[in-house]
Write a structure and sequence with these properties.
It is globular, with a radius of gyration of 17 Å. The N and C termini lie far apart (37 Å). By secondary structure, it is an alpha+beta fold. The chain folds into two domains: 9-112, Ribosomal Protein L22, Chain A (Alpha-Beta Complex); 119-225, 4'-phosphopantetheinyl transferase domain (Ribosomal Protein L22, Chain A). It has six helices and eleven strands.
């Protein structure tokens, strides 16, 4: 579990290729104080006008990204926002920023020839699972059920795995994807790994998504060579 709010912690998640994974818990009460400490993290106009919770998410993600980039030796630590609200990393670096409730995480590498995605999800409530039938097919639900996952657990990890894949490939495809454009076809609880297939432009590509269950929330991550 993460410790006190606003403390940056490193997690050994998907450390292939020298990746750095940092996380923190945020806190509304301490936000103004820590923002004063890091005045170099500037808000774009749309964030400056956003609700406070969105400001906290943005600030925390950029603070973690800055720390990771510094650790990787980057002279440029600003991560701006693209037209689709995606993070724009300095040249030679690639990464992913994610948040769920008050948990923020980043996964950053010094390599722009890799696909990188990360997602954090708190467990989906049982009443939500009925409205998420478009996320997983019956075949995918059966696969996860055969591995001992409940319906709620299946939707949580399935949603997170597909979100991670979509984040990883977005810089290449430059468009949002539907959940039926990816398929879970293997689940390995011992290796904490999900094999997932992406179907796009009449081509299918296979990737591995790693997962770590920290009890209250789940982390999924992907680092794969960019094969397109």
């Amino acid at each position: 579990m993460l410790s006190c709010p606003w403390r940056i912690e490193r997690l050994p998640v998907c450390e292939r290729y020298g990746a750095i994974c940092l996380m923190m818990r945020t806190n509304d009460k301490g936000f103004d104080y820590i923002r004063q400490e890091h005045k170099d993290i500037l808000f774009p106009k749309n964030i400056d006008n956003a609700v406070r919770s969105r400001q906290i998410e943005f600030f925390a993600g950029r603070l973690l990204a800055k720390r990771a980039l510094e650790e990787l030796g980057s002279f440029h630590t600003d991560v701006s926002i693209g037209i689709h609200r995606e993070p724009l990393w300095p040249s030679g670096f690639v990464g992913s920023i994610t948040h769920s409730k008050n948990i923020i995480g980043v996964l950053v590498l010094r390599n722009n020839n890799l696909l990188v995605g990360m997602d954090i999800e708190h467990q989906i409530a049982s009443e939500q699972s009925e409205s998420l039938s478009n996320i997983l097919s019956n075949k995918e639900l059966t696969l996860l059920a055969q591995n001992g996952l409940s319906k709620v657990e299946s939707f949580t990890i399935g949603f997170s795995a597909k979100e991670t894949l979509f984040k990883a490939v977005f810089p290449r495809v430059k468009r949002y994807l539907d959940f039926d454009q990816s398929t879970l076809f293997k689940f390995d609880s011992n290796r904490c790994c999900i094999d997932i297939e992406l179907h796009i432009d009449r081509v299918s590509r296979r990737y591995k998504v790693l997962f770590v269950d920290l009890g209250i929330f789940l982390i999924t991550s992907l680092i794969e060579p960019a094969d397109w």
